[in-house]
Design a protein that fits this description.
This protein is an alpha+beta fold. It is built from three helices and three strands. It has helices spanning 24-30, 35-46, 53-61; strands at 4-5, 10-12, 18-20. The protein has a three-stranded antiparallel beta sheet, with no helix packed on it.
Length: 63
């Protein structure tokens, strides 16, 4: 199967169907009850071409 990678974990298969691959940790961080933590993760991910889970975890861990 031919897959074309895209930004933020988006892939397109040979039928041109798009799929997004998101690590479960990212979803948990973005749904945190603390909106400031979730916002830091969102701001970080918007600056990325590829998802860098280590950078997202660092942003999430900021006080």
């Amino acid at each position: 199967m031919s897959i074309s990678p895209g930004q933020w974990g988006w892939l397109k298969d040979k039928f041109w169907i798009s799929w997004q691959i998101v690590p479960t940790d990212v979803g948990k961080m973005m749904q945190d009850k603390d909106p400031e933590k979730a916002n830091l993760v969102m701001e970080s991910i918007l600056q990325m071409d590829k998802i860098d889970i280590n950078r997202l975890q660092q942003a999430y861990a900021q006080p």
